Amino acid sequence: MENTNTPVTIPRIGDKAPSFKAVTTQGEITFPEQYTGSWVILFSHPADFTPVCTSEFMTFATMEKDFEAVNCKLVGLSVDGLYSHIAWLRTIKEKIEYKGMKNVEVKFPLIEDITMDVAKKYGMMQPGESATKAVRAVFIIDPKGIVRAVIYYPLSLGRNFDELHRVVVALQTADAFQIATPADWRPGDDVIVPPAGSCGVAKDRMEGKEDIKCYDWFFCTKKIAKEKIMAMLTKKVN
Ligand code: BEZ
Question: Residue 140: CA atoms inside 13 Å, Cβ hemisphere, count?
Fold first, then answer.
């Protein structure tokens, strides 16, 4: 692919995810259009055949079914070429046994981006960290192609994939139930309800007249059963 001197941009939360076509280990993709109707995590790693990235790919591939279960697909990227990707993923499958994971097959697409066009569109090249390798960027994109969360890590720091799964679940829960989620929230924990629209409602809440617990007028929570959240998560998003 020709280098088009793509300007460097950083997609922000609430932006439409920038579109691109790319070659991947699973064939060509048109992003994010091809993923309409699904959540998708677009993530970059610094380089093939490096240890932190290898541990990340083994973990992500092992958890792919957990992401599928919440209607979320995975797409990786580095500024390496396709044959490097293929050779690295084959090495992982055939040779690497790590933390009980072995024979790990990476089935999600891994984008080749030797021109850095996609990496630049997604602010994955951060020269203060490295001029030649993408940082560990994570874009969580909703079924309408809107960027909903952006997380960046430096080269030395492997990501926590349970946390990425938690973010997808929390965003879907916030959308479905019109609530917010507090620190360290997990399904089954209390959720935060929007502020009361009037003094009367706030007073009722404070007096415990609704099924809502208020710590003060601006900080109220309610319960949503874990089963209700699980049922919502497994419903296909259209
Ligand atoms: C790694 O994945 O191990 C790695 C990649 C680039 C710089 C440092 C570490």
Answer: 20
